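HOLO CASE FILE
Compound: aspartic acid
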Amino acid sequence: MIKSLIITLLIVLTITMKDTTKTNTSTTNTYTIVIHGGAGTIKKEKLTEKKEKEYKTLLSLALETGKFHLEKGGTAMETTEMVIKILEDSPLFNAGRGSVFNHKGFQEMDASIMDGRDLTFGAVAGFTNLKNPIEGARIVKDSTKHAFLYGERGQEFCLSKGAIYADSSYFYSEYRWKQYQRALKRDAIELDHSDDEDAEKDEILDSKKFGTVGCVVLDKYGNLAAGTSTGGLTNKKFGRIGDSPIIGAGTYANNESCAVSCTGNGEYFLRGTIARDISALMEYKNYSLKKSGNKTLKKLSDMHGKGGFISVDKNGNYIMMFNTRGMYRGVATSKGEFKVGMYSTFD
Ligand code: ASP
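Model generated. Tokens follow.
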């Protein structure tokens, strides 16, 4: 069942997704792909076996698809977009179809994608009716001289370039609506990433286990790419833009260092330029990816920011770090490593 789904997906996706800017054609035959589906209060005792399985199946499907494409010589950019689309199409994650509601009851989505080869990127913010916001980000990158489009007019442009429209009913789910109603009642912005231990707040904590999605890739040609897509925060102020579409905050990729995608309460990632810091420590201080990640996570924690990030470097080393209870995540490499998980350890 999963296999045939993957094959159908691949046929559709590889036709619609050709990275025409393959610059380097010599291959190393090694690749790494890392994904996340948000970090937050993810408690084993709160997740039914069925739900846990749903998450793992979806994460595995996304990884399998990415791996298959990379194996066949697909580029980091193509793979990043392809994999994020799969995560956006699932109501399980707070991106695309599963996006949370803002204070006015709209779903406003942000996304970005960055190419480590030449530091070009595309970003979108405040989009309400693009089936796949990451597609909008890629269109901005490939079809304009600009880097960032926002709101209704930006969306209009992406639609004119072939992005798929989706009516608001496509994004509606009762679960998200109830989550929004609860947040409204409490007049709270649901950060989706609290580690609050208060048992009375369990119902609220339950609604904090879905998050942004992201993907970072090193392809066989030695190129890096990163992408992030999100619905933001439940009950966020209308018009609010988080870190996910901001290069250097929620997303970054540079062939000289690493590719990064973040998830967490975006305002802290914006203040701390978290994604860029991980890369800069490698570029300027010659840190290893792990050392850069540790240092940057400490910086985030010291600022009281909550969340995490995934990253892969130019040699295929990867990290998945977070200061919350868990993070939906997974990794696949050309060396045969393949794992998905969500709790503090991969059990
Ligand atoms: N970072 C996202 C934002 O602040 C939210 C998330 O990661 O779940 O918009």
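CASE NOTES: The first strand starts at residue 32 and ends at 40. Residues 144 and 229 are 20 Å apart (CA to CA).
CLOSED: yes
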